[in-house]
């Protein structure tokens, strides 16, 4: 049996995602060569106009159902190829049944040729970017240069398939990212946010996009945070900078611990920390609002370390240690 052209398998599936035979054919073709996955994703993106997913994170067996829903919901029409009309001799009525498959085959050949040309242009267009997004979960990914990004929940980033030229650039579109940069002095690394650029050579730091602005916290090394208006600040380990969208100044503060990146490490450390600070850190980590009710509560000091404990466990320890009462109601915690 003659094997179908590669692009033919992909296009047949995209036209009829509910067809089990096309689905099996595509699945078998994807298993033949790891490079086939890239071809499929490029073709699907061109077909739908979607952002390409990272190939390494694409699991064929687990994504069939989601892919079917997306393609079906998109109600994508067949590819239309317009050519200059040419006179065609009229065919006898009895031969129409034989002519139709041949015309269809020519259509498929034209569609395959056009798709291959578009894919080739897409693959060689530089730079080519990949978008990565998280929902309720955290995730991590390894960039082409060896730099690792740790993504907090509800975070979206964009990065090139390959770093070319003398710079390495990543774009944080929303959320929070911890960056562990591969040391390459000859090729500076930059993280771009809406109104702030962060420039480094080799270090680890956290950037967080909020409704109010951008926060940058350095764990190791040294970074330079630059406002779009040109103002900048150089940060060293333990320092945090906050740049508000509505303002033009940069405020900095020094932290004695790494609680700002607890979402990544799971570690929370409090050394004689006032309860007002503890409440702010716990509220951010567990995504709740913590309200202190009562005079003198804000100044109570806590000495404790937590590692991935649940909020209820932390509140229980807090209550016993500081002799307070903590009541949780959904996403609200009140401390008396």
TrEMBL record:
Pfam families: FecR, FecR_C. InterPro entries: FecR, FecR_C, Ferrdict_sens_TM. Residues 139-224 form the FecR protein domain. It comes from the Bacteria. Keywords: Membrane, Transmembrane, Transmembrane helix. Residues 268-330 form the Protein FecR C-terminal domain. One of its GO terms (molecular function) is sigma factor antagonist activity. PANTHER family: PERIPLASMIC SIGNAL SENSOR AND SIGMA FACTOR ACTIVATOR FECR-RELATED, PROTEIN FECR. This is FecR family protein. It comes from Chitinophaga ginsengisoli. The lineage of its organism: Bacteria, Pseudomonadati, Bacteroidota, Chitinophagia, Chitinophagales.
